[in-house]
UniProtKB/TrEMBL annotation:
Keyword Lipid metabolism included in the entry's annotation: no
Domain Peptidase M1 alanyl aminopeptidase Ig-like fold: 446-546
Family named by the database record: Belongs to the peptidase M1 family.
Name the record gives this protein: Aminopeptidase N
Top-level enzyme category: hydrolase
Cofactor needs: Zn(2+)
Record key words, sorted: Aminopeptidase, Hydrolase, Metal-binding, Metalloprotease, Protease, Zinc
Catalytic activity: Release of an N-terminal amino acid, Xaa-|-Yaa- from a peptide, amide or arylamide. Xaa is preferably Ala, but may be most amino acids including Pro (slow action). When a terminal hydrophobic residue is followed by a prolyl residue, the two may be released as an intact Xaa-Pro dipeptide
Positions of the Peptidase M1 membrane alanine aminopeptidase domain: 227-438
EC number(s) recorded for this UniProt protein: 3.4.11.2
Peptidase M1 alanyl aminopeptidase C-terminal domain span: 552-874
Taxonomic source organism: Limoniibacter endophyticus
């Protein structure tokens, strides 16, 4: 396949200041008439041909300045259009008519049908499946769109920008026109047509401009969009307050569709969402769903400035909009909820998903310089690590200079297709700082690792912190350049207070600027031996190897003023206990856990000065995947599972009485609210429910909770305990069928039921998943269905997916192959589940390798999938 390289970038020969599109919608034969105003970028240059991208298009007609082109004047294939005879004028108008088949489009890129409605997805390269175009992000155009369709099937006709004329066409057809005054790249184009319900609201911007808001959903689901609407209004306000970003059109529309490859899409003025991230009510959505809806509504809205007003010059710059917008949505959620809890959750996600990516065969820089298939670069590295890099810029600059840099960036590049260099330069100029070494974070892949050692000299009153950097994954150590790593820290006294000291060079307030492969920092004026708290708030996305003993960690867990590091200390204690237990399990020794760890869990649960959501996170041991990553090699998922469940059972038994009390004390009286306070209490109670059930050794308590639960959060939590801890109990069967019965006509909710069953530990789950694939609610064509069942099975069920007999891999390969026939993006996304195959123990490793090799060798394997498989095997 073709390899795309950053160094090959060059601007297009032509500009397209205006694009007019007419859609005559039909399920099988939609006609698209595109009229492009083309302008030579350099009228003096001798450009004699024009090449536009296409993908699977049927060309019906083509003309320039109103005159049909002769057959020898152009060449049209399914994937490109070359016009060989061009007018010599500096500008001309090109009209292209193409025919497309939305009904047959199951790749869900371009124009397709979902539940009978028409919708589009154009990022990254879907617009070329609609018409021939410069389908690249640096060609910005003003779009005018006219949609014609059956009035009965498609009363709603939407596109980007502001609404224009609409009316009847006779014959049961009607039309609507839309105009988007903001020049945009083709990937932000959108069209929706169909029969949809709607909720409406409005927002007045800071400068007094009224905006009509609407969310379109399937009829009958309107009420379930109210929370999303509320989140949208809060997002609009927040972006004004925190970043000074105001909305810029008369309308803002959101449409929820049920077949969607991504979470959502930020098309200008017309966001299209996976319905999973719009629909919510007490009975059908969990607290986690609500939080995700809030985050993603915010994310897509925030793209209006960081992504749409300022877009990317090329796809290598994807993190320019994604990393920054993730950072913005994280800040939004932190402001709406609990900042400390949000940060812990972010770090858990980063470690569970981004670290293994960066440390394995799919590792790539935040700003990659080569790709084969851009769809495969919508990764946790681009998004989450990209966000961490922006966060580090803020840490280095401080709030004020950071905001000044953002202001400069937004002002300087409004209307541009920009680069990472432009972004960094804005901060350099605003803060009068040199960020060239820092910029390495964009270019050097692998998870940085910082090893520290400390020494205290009582007589001199000095505390020496020695730091050394290396990395897991990425370039070899001898070719790595030192990163500038901002480490927020504190030196604590025995009473938990922050000690005063004289700081060495390279320490700026609470930030150590660690910028060499190895360096010592000597702090003076310390009368007592300080207790170090470092990388507070996870100020740098690194693996930290410290020299802290158990007493040190227990101290931080109890006294650190930084909530994140309190959690981190607890997490590290649990991780050490688990690693030790995995070792015991492998040698056949009995598993035991330090009593002080067990009692610590009780103390945390009982500590009312900590918010319940924090306690819930602190009481949750590192996941099986985290433990596997931490161990790093020769992984036996069964041993990991055994260690983790034994720890949980021990914690439950050791603290049953205390847990029972806290469980009762955190009951919620009064009506349901999806807010931080209530969801925190529910998460604490549900973590305790699991512990108590393990201590009970039976399903009674969870069954009781499932029957009494008035909301989906509690119901799902109880059902998970039943299914995961007592899969064969009658109570589990009863509750699973009750759930199935209650939601049999709501596949989106039934996804949760699928997911719970797909994650039941043990190799018998392979057969269960096979059976569920025949369930009437399952469909290989719907990404949400496939991800709920197969995605969950392969990415969140270590023991079943990695069954020693290879049956999990066999199932996986079948499904990925099947998905690849219709939806390569979905297949490629599923396939990353095997990226860490090299760290498995030898028997599983060989089976995994074989599975990958067979899939890669299959004739007809898509570019998307073979790109992932080849890199994984390389
Ligand atoms: N829709 C995806 C996102 O917002 C890609 N832009 O991240
Ligand atoms: Zn995004």
């Amino acid at each position: 396949g073709t390899v795309f390289r950053l160094q090959d970038y060059r601007p297009s020969d032509f500009l397209i200041p205006e694009t007019r599109l007419i859609f005559r919608l039909d399920p099988r034969e939609t006609l698209v008439t595109a009229t492009l105003s083309l302008e030579r970028r350099d009228p003096a240059a001798d450009v004699t041909a024009l090449k536009l991208a296409g993908d699977g298009l049927v060309l019906k007609s083509i003309s320039i300045d109103g005159k049909a082109l002769a057959a020898d004047a152009y060449e049209a294939t399914a994937d490109c259009l070359i016009i060989k005879q061009l007018p010599s004028s500096s500008s001309f108008s090109l009209t292209i008519e193409t025919e497309i088949d939305p009904e047959e489009n199951k790749a869900l890129m371009g124009l397709y049908r979902s539940s009978g409605n028409y919708c589009t997805q154009c990022e990254a390269e879907g617009f070329r499946r609609i018409t021939y175009f410069y389908d690249r992000p640096d060609v910005l155009s003003i779009y005018s769109v006219r949609i014609e369709a059956d009035r009965a099937n498609c009363p709603v006709l939407l596109s980007n920008g502001n609404p224009g004329a609409s009316g009847d066409l006779g014959d049961g057809r009607h039309f609507a026109e839309w105009h988007d005054p903001h020049p945009k790249p083709s990937y932000l184009f959108a069209l929706v047509a169909g029969d949809l319900g709607v909720i409406r609201d409005h927002f007045t911007t800071a400068s007094g401009k009224p905006v009509d808001l609407a969310i379109y959903v399937e009829h009958g689901k309107e009420e379930r969009a109210l929370y999303a609407m509320d989140a949208l209004k809060r997002s609009m306000k927040w972006d004004e307050d925190v970043f000074g970003c105001e909305y810029d059109l008369d309308v803002f529309n959101i449409v929820a569709v049920s077949d969607f490859n991504m979470g959502a899409m930020e098309n200008k003025g017309l966001n299209v969402f996976n319905d999973k991230y719009v629909l919510a009510d007490e009975k059908t959505a969990t607290d986690v769903d609500y939080a995700l809806i809030e985050a993603i509504i915010g994310h897509e809205y925030f793209h209006n400035w960081t992504g749409n007003r300022i877009t990317c010059r090329d796809w290598f710059q994807l993190c320019l909009k994604e990393g920054l917008t993730v950072f913005r949505d994280h800040e939004f959620s932190a402001d709406q909820r609990s900042r400390a809890v949000k940060r812990i959750a972010e770090v858990r996600t980063l470690r569970t998903h981004q670290f293994p990516e960066d440390q394995g065969p799919l590792s790539h820089p935040v700003r990659p310089d080569v790709y084969k298939e851009i769809n495969n670069f919508y990764t946790t590295t681009i998004y989450e690590k990209g966000s961490e890099v922006v966060r580090m810029i803020r840490t280095l600059l401080g709030e004020q200079a950071f905001r000044a840099g953002m202001d400069l960036y937004l002002k300087r590049h409004d209307g541009d297709a920009a680069t990472i260099e432009d972004f960094v330069k804005s901060f350099e100029d605003a803060a009068k700082l040199d960020l060239s070494q820092f910029s390495l974070w964009y270019h050097q892949n692998g998870t940085p690792k910082v090893t520290l050692s400390t020494a205290y000299d009582q007589t001199a009153g000095t505390f020496t912190l020695h730091l050394k950097q290396s990395a897991i994954g990425g370039p070899a150590l001898n070719t790595r350049k030192p990163l500038l790593i901002p480490l927020v820290f504190g030196l604590l006294g025995r009473d938990g207070s922050e000690l005063a000291y004289t700081a060495p060079q390279g320490v700026d307030g609470s930030v150590i600027r660690f910028d060499a492969m190895e360096k010592s920092f000597v702090f003076e004026g310390l009368k007592e031996k300080p207790i170090l708290s470092i990388n507070r708030g996870f100020s740098a996305p690194i693996v930290l190897k410290d020299d802290f003993d158990v007493a040190h960690r227990l101290f931080l867990a109890a006294h650190d003023s930084d909530a994140f590091n309190r959690w981190e200390a607890i997490n590290a204690l649990l991780m050490d206990a688990l690693k030790n237990a995995v070792g015991q399990e492998k040698t056949g020794a009995a598993l035991d856990f330090p009593p002080q760890i067990l009692s610590l869990m009780g103390k945390i649960a009982e500590n009312d000065s900590l918010e319940p959501a924090f306690r819930a996170l602190a009481l949750t041991p590192p996941s099986e995947a985290d433990l596997a990553r931490e161990i790093g090699e020769n992984i036996d998922p069964d041993a990991i599972y055994a260690a983790r469940i034994a720890l949980q059972a021990s914690i439950g038994k050791a603290n049953a009485a205390a847990f029972e009390k806290i469980y009762a004390a955190n009951a919620i009286n009064g009506p349901f609210a999806p807010d931080a306070e209530q969801s925190g209490k529910r998460s604490l109670r549900n973590v305790l429910l699991d512990y108590l059930s393990l201590a009970d050794g039976g399903p009674g308590r969870a069954h009781q909770s499932a029957m009494q639960s008035g909301n989906m959060t509690d119901r799902i939590a109880a059902l998970s305990v039943l299914a995961h801890r007592f899969p064969d109990a009658d109570e589990t069967r009863t509750e699973l069928s009750r759930f199935e019965h209650d939601f049999r006509s709501d596949p989106l909710v039934l996804d949760k039921w699928m997911q719970i069953q797909a994650t039941i530990p043990g190799e018998q789950t392979v057969a269960r998943v096979r059976a569920l694939m025949n369930h009437p609610a399952f469909s290989m064509l719907n990404p949400n269905r496939v991800r709920a069942l197969i995605g969950a099975f392969s990415s969140a069920n270590q023991t079943a997916f990695h069954s020693a007999d290879g049956s999990g891999y066999t199932l996986f390969a079948e499904v990925v192959t099947k998905a690849d026939e219709r939806n390569p993006q979905l297949a490629a996304r599923l396939a990353i589940a095997l990226r860490s195959w090299r760290s498995l123990e030898p028997v599983r490793r060989e089976k995994a390798r074989e599975t990958l090799a067979v899939m890669a060798a299959r004739e007809g394997c898509s570019i998307d999938l073979s790109d992932i498989l080849e890199r994984t095997l390389a």
